[in-house]
Amino acid sequence: MTRGMARHLRLSRAPGRRNAGLLRAGDWRLPCVLGRGGISHFKREGDGATPAARLHPRAVLYRADRFPRPFTALPLTAITPNDGWCDDPADRNYNRPVSLPYPGRHERLWREDHLYDLLVVLDWNLEPAIKGRGSAIFLHLANPGGAPTEGCIAVAPSAMHRLLRIMTRRTLIAID
Fold first, then answer.
1. Which of 16, 63, 70, 167 has a Cα at 20 to 30 A from 141?
2. Residue 130 gets which letter from DSSP?
3. What pTM was estimated for this model as a whole?
4. Domain 8-175 in CATH 2.40.440
C-alpha cells in the first residue's frame, strides 16, 4: 500500500469460494471471510449475506481489556459489557447501538469469542435504517478456523491493524 490514507478498497469473492474474499488496498491483497450467504445484491435481515454495496467506515469499536488503543483516523470508542446492537426490524432502534440489558432482539458486542474485540462499523442501512434490509454489518476479526460470518467482513488481527492505519470516513469499500 502506498503511503497515506486509502480512498478506495475493493472486496471481491475468491474464485470458487462462496464465503472467502480478497480485500485489495493499493498493492495489498488481504484474505477475508464473508457471510455464510456469500455476497448478495438483495441483502435482507437474517440471510447471512454480505451486501454488494459501496460502504464507508464510520467508527471503530474495541475492547480495551484485550487491545491497546488502535492507531486510526476513524472515531474510536472502547466498548463495555453493556454495549449491544439492535437487529430487530420491529424495534425503533433497529440497526443502532443499544445499552444492555435491552428488551428487543440484539447482538452483544462484548463477546467471549474475540470476533468483536476490534471492529469497524460500516454504513450499511444506517441513515435511515430500512426495516428488514439488514443490520450490524461490520468489518471485524475473523474466526481462527475461517468460519463464515452472519453477513459481515472478517479479517485477521494483523490485517485489521493495517487497515485501521489507512482508513478514514471517506474511504470507500466497494463490495462486488
1. 16
2. P
3. 0.95
4. yes
